[in-house]
Amino acid sequence: MSAILLIEQVLNGLQFGVMLFLMAAGLTLIFGVMGLINLAHGSLYMVGAFAAAAAAAATGSFALALVAALSAAALAGVLIEVAVIRRLYDAPHLDQVLATFALILVFSEGTRWVFGSFPLYLDIPDALSGPVTLPGGIQYPLYRLALIGVGLVVAAGLWWLTQRTRLGMQIRAGKDDREMIAALGVDISKLYTLVFALGAALAGLAGALVGAIQSVQVGMGEPVLILAFVTIVIGGIGSIKGAFIGALLVGLTDTLGGIFLPLILTVAMAPEAAAQTGAALASMLIYILMGAVLVWKPTGLFGGARPA
Amino acid sequence: MKHLLLATAACAIGATAAMADVKVGMITTLSGGGAGLGIDVRDGFMLAIEQSGRDDIEVVIEDDQRKPDIAVQLADRMIQSEEVDVLTGIIWSNLAMAVVPSATAQGKFYLSPNAGPSQLAGRGCHPNYFNVAWQNDNLHEAAGAYASEVGYSNSFILAPNYPAGQDALTGYKRLFEGDIAQETFTQLGQTDYAAEIAAIRASDADSVYFFLPGGMGISFLKQYADSGVDKPVIGPAFSFDQGILQAVGDAALGVTNTSQWSKDLDNAANQAFVESFVAEYDRLPSLYASQGFDTANLLISAMEKADVSDQDAFRAALEEADFDSVRGDFRFGSNHHPIQTIYAREVIEEDGVYTNRIIGTALEDHADVYAAECNM
Predict the structure, then answer these.
(1) pLDDT tens for residues B104-156?
(2) Are the Cβ atoms of B199 and A259 closer than 8 angstroms?
(3) Range of the domain at B350
(4) What values do phi and psi take at A116, rounded to 5?
(5) Do B358 and B224 lie in a common domain?
(6) Are residues B115 and B164 in the same domain?
(7) Which family does the record assign (chain B) (predicted)?
(8) What's the angle, vertex CA B159, arms to CA B194 and CA A290, rounded to 5?
């Protein structure tokens, strides 16, 4: 294991982490502010990717594709917030889970109806394609470096939004005491729609960015959704900072575990068995991490006292 | 959804239930992530039925959603209340293992258009079970043989960590004569392969073999092409079928893959099939469509010789496989699995569409290794 390979894998883990953050940020905002479990968040990720693929095919421009992804996902977010989610804020979590699960099915089959069952094509822009050589002779894909950059910029922007703006103040207040900020004259229903649209747009952005290096297909959002839930549970529900640290932890653990566990096991086992056992153990690592964090801090790393 | 499909099926064959002599139950994946495969099998199958002009075949089509429990429920209903004579359609090996043994034990015929788990080719073989596609290991064995033939001596191999993935790497190693630089199992459904690609870059392998069906393969190939690693890649046809190539784009160009069928195979049956498939569905047929088409033609060939109620005669007629397969020469081995030639293909761009072209033969008249374990 050379130092170059190690650094490359750490970069991979970081890149995976920041993309996970884009998903987890929206999820944690929605859960933290509105107390809503939104299983359909993965569908918004898919909507973003499909909108980007369609826009890229029509215009050939990646920048326009990103704009399309952001607006389509935000629009879909507003639509489902007004039509469905709004009725669920006071409902028990089980009702929310059922209704948002139904939304997953509606989005999946609706997308299939519009775009067909075969995966769509979405490629990275020419300006960002191919590898670059980093100091120390590390070859690393430029696009993945760009993803890390975008993720960090969004994280900084969200921090600024929640900590330094009036809207952010309302969001934080809404998280702590819904009735009180309504009583103070903040239009809570408009605030909720806005937060939901923001979370949806972030998911759509992640879908489009990641869709360019993966496959744009129906059902692409659900595996990411599970990881995003693990992330916000580790980070503490409702905390943007927690989502960021949690996402990086999950990204690094998953990437480095998948590489190093099989290698470590070869010390004690035959290569073939080590590869299989290592892969099986590596897929459990993030859940073990989640369990360990919860034993140590039952509300997650940055979660405050759970609201009643 | 279900009624719509039934209606489509009924329209396509222009038959009514009362007149039907053979009732076929098709359980396949029509929704969710793997739907493209099931849709291709269904469309190929229905095209052959339509072309035969017969009005004595009724096809009942149901969606298994890629879930074994749903496939089992559908099979029970088709056998008990619909009283089908023949079952077909299953794409995934784990679903086939859940459905096929009980269906054949209840005296139904099962014609597999895709899944070919080793268990059903070896000890678990059954007189009423026929596989029209391949035994799971076949295309991987062919890839191993072809890699040796073109002179690769050290392969980095990877597959998802589930039974078909383990079979794939076993199959590749069975006929590959070189060394294995590293064997890596990824997670099923994994979408980011940056870590594996970094390991490939760092290894001293001269070739990469991967089995990553569907979306997993799309992700891997796009990321591999963008990483600047230039070790040659080989895979089975599953990662390069017509349904996903357009999503991979340029990244797949020139990649070698192994298949028992290709669009450019030079025989009359295949040319007619490709032409009529494009005319009917306005897209190029995939490997899966060709398998669905052959499965229906096998069934029709047997119906011409025997009545399905006479099981022994019907089975003998199926064993003869007296139809023009779109893949050329085709016959069944003693365990009712194909003995067939497997080709090496490469991905090309043709009139703006990505597709495959045959570049050589990987294995002539290849049979699977499990036939010896089959007693029937």
Answers:
(1) 999 999 999 999 998 899 999 999 999 999 999 999 999 999 999 999 999 99
(2) yes
(3) 138-259+341-373
(4) 85, 175
(5) yes
(6) no
(7) Belongs to the leucine-binding protein family.
(8) 60
